Amino acid sequence: MPRMIITIDGPAGTGKSSVSRLVAERLGCDFLDTGAMYRAVGLEALRREIDLTNRNELMMAARACRIEFDWTQRPPRVLLNGGDVTDQLRTDRVTEAASFVAVVDGVRALLVQQQQRIGAEHPNLVTEGRDQGTVVFPDAGLKFFLDASLEERARRRFVELRAKHESVDYWKVYHDMEERDRRDRTRSVAPLRPAADAVVIDTTSLSRDAVVDRLVEIARERGAGTRKLP
């Protein structure tokens, strides 16, 4: 299979993580959840009980993080300083902390270097995030940008949190996501936007499986997915 990095970007609630994981499985590629890296730093910040608005302290927390992936698992498990934190990264508190982490220029630079190193080590990779096609892998063989209405994205996030038995209010989820969008789109470094050559897909009225089918179809047309699964 020829080397191909496939990037999948978009705002929160578009289904990037689950879609990217399934696309990677269908194509026989490795999967990198870059959002998990920001969440890991956010988790470390919460553990240290630091002020999330203090960029210097967030940078110190990021430097204290050793973020690794267990590539023997599909999808890879996330390790923070040697401990498996995969199941701790999707709580509402960690999500909020990650949104503060993501706007710190130094943290982004640090994690971008790590992501590019992973890309060099894994020649066939599906990677998802906010800036994969614009900053991290500008020469990626195929770029996608998933979007959806704010109302639908908030609904999906609300359902996800309720399924985990978290006590949440829809309108709080809505306004938190609206604020996160604002931070993502207006930050000084790597603001959220589609790459000029990205395939943009509105997922508002599409099921997850329909989105996966569409992305896999396009990827195979570009020559991805020719490697046999182990």
Give the CATH level 1 class: Alpha Beta
What is the CATH architecture term? 3-Layer(aba) Sandwich
Task: Kindly report the average pLDDT value.
Answer: 92
Largest sheet: 5 strands, parallel
Total count of strands: 8
Written account of the structure:
With 230 residues, this protein is α/β, with parallel strands linked by helices. It has one domain (4-216): 3-Layer(aba) Sandwich (Rossmann fold), CATH 3.40.50.300. It is built from nine helices and eight strands. It has helices at 16-27, 34-48, 55-63, 92-101, 105-121, 132-136, 150-163, 170-186, 208-221, and strands spanning 4-9, 30-33, 67-70, 77-80, 83-84, 124-129, 142-147, 199-202. It has a five-stranded parallel sheet, sandwiched between helices. It has a three-stranded antiparallel sheet with strand order 3-4-5. Helix 2 (34-48) packs across helix 3.
